[in-house]
């Protein structure tokens, strides 16, 4: 009897260590709703495609929940299905189909590449897997070797290898500056660019302010002489890309209060209204006529708490139906934990 009890206890402890019994119901719910048995993260609001960003976020969250089994499942699918290029980067998009699915676009997405590298570095450290660290370093070397362009602000991080340099200007996405990861990149891949990228990102954020609330856009054109402009063909919104910027800033403990003023002003302006929009069009200040998903409201509440906003609301209860806002909610919780609150 005692032997059976001890064996059962040992099995339970091993399962807990592997993540199979992770006590966080939000993480288990996220896995159940958005990750297939093979390890594919499903973007439920976007024709059920998968992308390198989603795989990177999933892997990062798996490390945070000490869930090695899920991490390995996610990484195995990513490596088998998105590592199809002739470099160290990943195809950004995979589409399901009747015959099993395939890569829909071989171009990379630099934020997805960096998220995967970050997750691999953290996984390698937590579970002592040097091969994962080696893959992360290869990704980082490819990014700094092929996806950076000089500018008066410092190095620009191109969103992908194809399609973002035109007419003597580069198009960037400031939410691709992964501020909380740069110090870890520097330790793994000692190169000064990982110290320069945070500075260039902050300089661009200080300059790229538009509309009533002086918010940064999803997409920004940077001319060779440093002039900045919106990119109408890609949209003129402070949208679902850019709303990640204040989360990344607070996660990395960027302390300049002025950099948060525009985000706080936007959120506070709707505190007493019936609608809490997620985004605004920077060309005419129009806002969404509907409430932001709970995950976006959770992100905003988290940043406001981290900035000691006395009017910060509580995060809303209840999971979002779709992948992206549900993921933002988990990331916000992780950021708040790592930022020391």
TrEMBL record:
Cite the InterPro entries for this sequence.
6-hairpin_glycosidase_sf (IPR008928), 6hp_glycosidase-like_sf (IPR012341), Glyco_hydro_8 (IPR002037)
State the reactions this protein catalyses: Endohydrolysis of (1->4)-beta-D-glucosidic linkages in cellulose, lichenin and cereal beta-D-glucans
Signal peptide coordinates = 1-20
In this entry, which stretches build a coiled coil? none
Say yes or no: keyword Hydrolase present: yes
* A Pfam family: Glyco_hydro_8
Gene3D superfamilies registered for this protein in UniProt? 1.50.10.10
- Which EC number(s) are documented for this chain? 3.2.1.4
Enzyme class label: hydrolase
Q: Name one GO biological process term.
A: cellulose catabolic process
Molecular-function GO terms, alphabetical: cellulase activity
Q: Which UniProt keyword terms apply here? A: Carbohydrate metabolism, Cellulose degradation, Glycosidase, Hydrolase, Polysaccharide degradation, Signal
The record's comment on protein family reads: Belongs to the glycosyl hydrolase 8 (cellulase D) family.
Name of the molecule in the record: cellulase
What is the originating organism of this protein? Chitiniphilus shinanonensis
- Encoding gene, per UniProt annotation: cscR
